[in-house]
Request: fold
Amino acid sequence: MAEIKSTLDIIMEKTRGLTMTEEEKAAMHDKKLAENSRGLVLKYLDGTISMERFKQEWSDLAEEQENARIILTRICMESMDPEADNGPLSAVLHQVAGADTGPVGKALERAKADLEERRATARERIRRALAERGISGSAILPNLNADSEWKEISSRVRQELHALLLSLVPG
Reply:
């Protein structure tokens, strides 16, 4: 009688001779470090852990990882938002990753000013469009969140900011 093989047995047979290269192992370690670091950053931003606890847990995670600071810096840069309080992320960048936050702050201020200018322009565009339809008055407040053009502009400014911030990361 023929033996019925389980899916696991078949997979084990097919992968028996496969091994990971050093590059694949390094990439897997980096991915795991990035996931765990991102989780720590989120806990810190949510107020679940203090800066001291963050430093302790991150140093345990990053132990013997050459590019751990670069990974943490990238995570923080990707999380920056020109319309949010980036103080906690800047603290992580400065205190844990050892990054110079001066250029980051300047880039954030430029992006924030750019968004404000574009926001005013978008509001005026919406007001004019409403006025053309006979809707006007001092009580009219344009809803930018419902405007697809504004969403695209806002998204583009954020993408440009993140590209600029990531260009500041060494390596």
In short: The longest helix spans residues 102-132.
